[in-house]
Every structure is written in C-alpha cells, then in structure tokens.
From TrEMBL:
This is ABC transporter domain-containing protein. SMART domains: AAA. Keywords: ATP-binding, Nucleotide-binding, Transport. It holds the Pfam family ABC_tran. It comes from Actinocorallia libanotica. InterPro entries: AAA+_ATPase (IPR003593), ABC_transporter-like_ATP-bd (IPR003439), P-loop_NTPase (IPR027417). Residues 2-227 form the ABC transporter domain. Belongs to the ABC transporter superfamily. SUPFAM superfamilies: P-loop containing nucleoside triphosphate hydrolases.
C-alpha cells in the first residue's frame, strides 16, 4: 500500500505540488497520469525518499521510505535512466545491488530473464539502447521481490515487445497481490493495464478513482484526460 496525503512542494515561490492525495492499493495497478511538468516525478521522488515535501506525507506500508528496514525488498522503483555505471555489465550492476541489499544472487539471472535481457547480461550498460536501459531499470526494481513497484514513465523507450512484457509483468504483480504505481503521459498504455487512475495537472489532482469512473461520460481515457487537464482548451486558445 502506498499512501500520499496532502502532499505539498514549493520551490522558492513556485508551487510544484498542492495537496496531492494518492492511494495505490495491493492487488491493483494504479496509473498516475498528467501532462509534462504536472508533478508526477516530483511526487514519486518524494515517495521514494529522494526529495522532501514542504507539507504532507508520502508513505510506503505506513512508513516513510527512509525508515524502511529493507527498502529494496519492500518497494522496487524505476525512475529515469538505468542508474548504472556505463562501464559495468548488466549482471555486475544487478549483482552489486543484490549484494548490498541482502538479496540472493540467483535473483540476478531471474530478473534479467523476466525483462528480456538474459542475452545481454554480459553487455556493458554504456552500450545499451534507451529501451535496454529501461529494461535494466525494471530488472533492478524487481530484484528484491518487493510488494510494491513504483515505475516512473516505464513505457518510455520500450519497443512493442518491451511494452507487452511490461504490461504482463505489472498485471502479474497485481494479480499476485502486489501494489503497482506507474506514471505515464501515454493514455493507450495506461488504459490497457490500470485498475485505478489518478490524474494530476499543474501540481493538483484533478481526478482519481477506478478507471471506469474516471472515464465515465467520455469516449475514452484520452478524452477524459484532455478534458480533465484542460489541454485541449489550452492548445486551442
Ligand atoms: N530539480 C528541480 N528544480 C526546479 N524545478 C523542478 C525540479 N524538478 C522539477 N521541477 C519543476 O517541477 C514541476 C513538476 O515537474 P515533474 O518533473 O514532477 O513533472 P512530471 O509530471 O513528472 O513531468 P514529465 O511528464 O515531463 O516527466 C515542473 O514545473 C518542473 O519544472
């Protein structure tokens, strides 16, 4: 369970986040949607202890990320970039994370297989394509068999096979009772996997609830998204 309440973030006089509420529940895929600059990454960075809020709380299983005893076994995350040194091989990178977090070494081969990088384990990360780097980031998120997954724009850079694989992984994770929170600005990908949706625009949540509730009265999630974020009006103005 991931719970964010009344989260606020200011940078100088700029309001980045205002009273953001979000819950991602076990057994469900929750999509966090919004246009570029809406505040998705800022929210997820605070949830993962990489930044501090100005107000409010962001908790993983009722605790702040920084106070988790076994963070990688509790919540796996993928933010931008593979987060690995370019001269390291994929396997060495994952083995290093595993070693420093008390995760069994066997998990390295398992997650490389899961994300479709089994044939590239000995490849240096510096030679990876954008999509391969994203797959490696996903592998690192899965490494500790965490209950919760937090994935920031996981579809970016993935090819069709990668997108299909990702969908399968997140659906399977939720089906096993896990919690999945993923951000995206790509409606089609989200409509295909999400149970619940939270839409953010200008640092404020403009809609939240089951996908069917958020899309009610609209032809598609995309139509709902444009209506909720005011994008069409802004572009037409
Ligand atoms: N380190 C930072 N310093 C100053 N401003 C920042 C910083 N990080 C983000 N911002 C600002 O905070 C706002 C929210 O950005 P954020 O990256 O959270 O949005 P996002 O919804 O993740 O967008 P995208 O879809 O483009 O990734 C933006 O106006 C951005 O310019």
């Amino acid at each position: 369970m991931l719970s964010i309440e009344k989260l606020g973030k200011r940078r100088g006089s700029r309001v980045i986040l205002a009273d953001v509420d979000l819950r991602a529940e076990p057994g469900k895929v929750t999509a966090f949607l919004g246009p570029n600059g809406a505040g998705k990454s800022s929210t997820l960075r605070i949830l993962l202890g990489l930044d501090r809020p100005t107000s409010g709380t962001a908790l993983v299983h009722g605790r702040a990320y920084r106070s988790l005893r076994d963070p990688l076994r509790t919540v796996g995350s993928m933010l931008d970039g593979p987060g690995a040194h370019p001269s390291r091989t994929a396997r060495a990178h994952l083995a290093w994370i595993a070693r420093s977090n008390g995760i069994p070494r066997r998990r390295v081969a398992e997650v490389l297989e899961q994300v479709g990088l089994a044939a590239h384990g000995r490849g240096r990360v510096g030679g990876f394509s954008l999509g391969m780097g994203r797959r490696l980031g996903l592998a690192a998120a899965l490494l500790g068999e965490p209950e919760a997954l937090v994935l920031d724009e996981p579809v970016n850079g993935l090819d069709a096979e990668g997108v299909r694989r990702l969908r399968g992984l997140v659906r399977a994770h939720a089906a096993d009772g896990g919690t999945v929170l993923l951000s995206s600005h790509l409606m089609g990908e989200v409509a295909a996997v999400a149970d619940d949706v939270v839409v953010i625009s200008g640092g404020r949540v403009v809609a939240a609830g089951p996908l069917s509730d958020v899309t009610r009265g609209h032809a598609s999630l995309e139509d709902a998204y444009f209506a909720l974020t005011g994008y069409e009006r802004a572009e037409g103005a």
